[in-house]
Specification:
The chain is an alpha/beta fold and about 325 residues long. It is about 35% helix and about 15% strand. The chain is built from 13 helices and twelve strands. A seven-stranded parallel beta sheet has the order 8-7-6-9-10-11-12, sandwiched between helices. It has a five-stranded parallel beta sheet with strand order 2-1-3-4-5. About 40% of the residues are buried. The N terminus is likely disordered.
Length: about 325
């Protein structure tokens, strides 16, 4: 692609991101408007001027919005999931969608392991107690990861990063992915969903949010496990039906939950729906073997840079000049 054509590619970035993203795109010959403060109305008013739009989770790029983007050639997501983009419309109109799961997979893998260890050993509970003057040992007796079977559902960037970090704990790691095959390696054994149900002591979820995975983990799904289990979710909140999760915790089928995501998050992931949070939420935040973090599994200093670098490289490879 010639420089003159590169110069014709105009991009708007509508969410905050590391400066390396706009800087690298400009070095690649693209015109970049960095507008993280722009409103949804403002985006709709100017989107017809742009060949590319880059976002995190500020808005949902619906077909209605994209119909106004008459020049749109690509969409970039500074993250892994694409659920806030109407990818069906984009594909039908030859709009390329870029994401960067490679940029935060290490962060997610490490955070998932941290959540798991914290849940098994009641680390956050014990920390709060000691800081309030309580020294309780027997009440905080934990479980070892060694000898447990960890069942992973979804073996893409995030699931494989988590499996890699489990090496050395002497746990058995198995994974089921409906859309991948032949991925057994030194970190994981490929298996069926039935074997995940039969053997798992711990379930870790690493699937995208789609119509197929919304509320995938419901009462019947949990009952399919042969053992009492611990559940870890660093994917998306609505993958789990929280009411059903709580019911199974009360019954003792689920021994604990480590959750970086909740179905009560707003679409931007920046806050919860604070009006009328249900009883299930209040159960989770008071349960001694529940650990919750605010959708930060992929949110590290290093991943912020890597997401920007990887996304800009992907875009430049198609629409810019290599630098």
């Amino acid at each position: 692609m010639s420089d003159s054509r590169n110069d014709s590619i105009r991009v708007i970035i509508i969410d905050s991101t590391h400066p390396v993203l706009p800087e690298t795109l400009r070095l690649g010959g693209l015109q970049v408007d960095y507008e993280p403060g722009v409103s949804k109305t403002g985006i709709e008013r100017v989107i017809h001027n742009y060949d590319g739009i880059i976002l995190r989770s500020k808005i949902t790029l619906t077909a209605q919005i994209m119909q106004k983007a008459v020049k749109l050639k690509f969409i970039g997501r500074v993250g892994s999931g694409l659920e806030n983009i109407d990818t069906v419309y984009a594909e039908a109109h030859n709009i390329i969608c870029f994401n960067a799961p490679e940029g935060n997979r290490d962060a997610v893998g490490e955070h998932t392991l941290g959540l798991l260890l914290s849940m098994l050993n009641k680390i956050t509970k014990a920390d709060r107690e000691v800081k309030s003057g309580k020294w309780m040992r027997e009440e905080n007796r934990g479980y070892e990861l060694k000898g447990k079977t960890v069942g992973i559902i979804g073996y893409g960037n995030m699931g494989s990063a988590f499996a890699q970090r489990l090496k050395g704990f002497e746990a058995k790691v198995i994974a089921f992915d409906k859309y991948k095959f032949d991925y057994t390696d030194e970190f994981v054994t490929e298996t069926s969903i039935d074997e995940v149900f039969e053997k798992s002591d711990i379930l870790s979820l690493h699937v995208p949010l789609t119509a197929e995975t919304k509320y995938m983990v419901d009462e019947s799904f949990i009952e399919s496990f042969q053992k009492e289990i611990f559940i870890v979710n660093t994917s998306r909140g609505p993958v789990i039906n929280t009411d059903h999760l709580v019911r199974k915790m009360k019954e003792g089928k689920v021994l604990g939950a480590a959750l970086d995501v909740l179905e009560y998050e707003r679409s931007s992931f920046e806050e919860l729906h604070t009006e009328g949070l249900p009883e299930a939420y209040h159960f989770l935040i008071t349960h001694p073997r529940v650990v919750i973090t605010p959708h930060i599994a992929g949110w590290t200093t290093e991943s912020e840079v890597k997401l920007a670098e990887i996304l800009s490289e992907k875009i430049i490879r198609v629409f810019g000049r290599l630098i």
